[in-house]
Design a protein that fits this description.
Blueprint (H helix, E strand, L loop, with lengths): L2 H25 L5 H33 L8 H27 L5 H34 L2 H16 L7 H15 L5
Helix pairs in contact: 1-2, 1-4, 1-5, 1-6, 2-3, 2-5, 2-6, 3-4
């Protein structure tokens, strides 16, 4: 059973929901700055801090033990895209700060970075779900998958208030209630 890769694919469902909310914020007549900040925090803590951490510190090194290079090929590409995603998130954060300081033109740059991040992550997730994780499924043993899954669960459940996987999902749902279907 592909417990570990399925866990990562389940994360992708919520990350895509978060991206959808963020993109809705770009067309909302007046998104709250605190909600934009919440979305960025969720990206940093959940998409990057938890999900990408599971990949970068656990899955990818194990894949390297099974012959996948982190310097070239699919794992290297995913690592590179994680770096590009972090640059978009920095652009969002930096421009939110400018917006908070009264620079209303910064909202356009917030939106540009959100859209860039969204497009990147949608393509990235497609490649992981349909190619990289299938390669991992073929290379990893059932024991590898079970061990990874247990390590993933430990990461998901550690942390302080508002920092477990369940907390992140609830926070995404709250933002969905505010911004879902606002542009219809």
């Amino acid at each position: 059973m592909n417990f570990a890769t399925q866990n990562l694919e389940n994360d992708h469902v919520y990350i895509l929901r978060l991206i959808d909310v963020m993109e809705s914020m770009t067309t909302h007549p007046a998104p709250e700055i605190v909600d934009l900040e919440e979305a960025v925090e969720l990206v940093k803590c959940y998409a990057d801090g938890l999900h990408h951490a599971k990949e970068e510190t656990l899955l990818f090194p194990l894949m390297a033990e099974h012959g996948f290079s982190s310097n070239q090929g699919p794992v290297a590409m995913m690592l590179h895209e994680h770096t590009i995603g972090r640059a978009f998130v920095k652009g969002i954060s930096d421009n939110i700060e400018l917006l908070k300081d009264g620079d209303l033109s910064a909202f356009n740059l917030v939106c540009t970075n959100i859209r860039g991040y969204g497009e990147l992550l949608q393509n990235h997730i497609y490649k992981e779900n349909n190619m990289l994780f299938r390669m991992a499924d073929g290379a990893l043993t059932e024991s590898d998958q079970q061990s990874l899954f247990q390590q993933f669960e430990q990461l998901e459940n550690k942390g302080g208030p508002n920092s477990t996987k369940g907390d992140f999902i609830a926070r995404i749902a709250r933002l969905e209630q505010i911004y879902h279907n606002t542009n219809q």
